[in-house]
């Protein structure tokens, strides 16, 4: 179970669902979930970063390393 993917699914489809590996191996689902997760990172977790370039770089770093690893 991946909590980030569950949050991304909820953000994307406005309902809660646990997603499976099989669901994520579908390229269309994977891209949709990945972009939803980037949206969550950029607009929710990192909203206090006012400089858009800095926020973008932090969102990319958080996507790759986890949001808790961005200082």
List the helices and strands and how they pair.
Blueprint: H1 3-13, H2 21-25, H3 27-45, H4 52-65
Helix pairs in contact: 1-3, 3-4
Description of the structure:
- With 71 residues, the chain is an all-alpha fold.
- Helices cover 69% and strands 0% of the residues.
- It has helices at 3-13, 21-25, 27-45, 52-65.
- The longest helix is centred in the middle third of the chain and has 19 residues, at 27-45.
- The radius of gyration is 12 Å and the shape is elongated.
Write a concise synopsis of the structure shown.
The protein has helices spanning 3-13, 21-25, 27-45, 52-65.
Characteristic terms for this protein:
single chain, 69% helix, 71 residues, mainly alpha
Count of beta strands? 0
Provide the succession of SSEs.
Answer: HHHH
Q: Beta fraction of the residues?
A: under 5%
SSE-based structural type: mainly alpha
- How helical, in percent, are the residues? 55-70%
Morphology: elongated
């Amino acid at each position: 179970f991946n909590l980030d993917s569950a949050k991304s699914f909820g953000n994307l489809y406005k309902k809660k669902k646990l997603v499976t590996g099989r669901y994520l191996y579908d390229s269309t689902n994977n891209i949709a979930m990945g972009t939803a997760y980037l949206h969550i990172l950029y607009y929710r977790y990192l909203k206090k970063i006012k400089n858009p370039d800095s926020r973008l770089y932090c969102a990319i770093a958080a996507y790759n390393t986890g949001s808790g690893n961005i200082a």
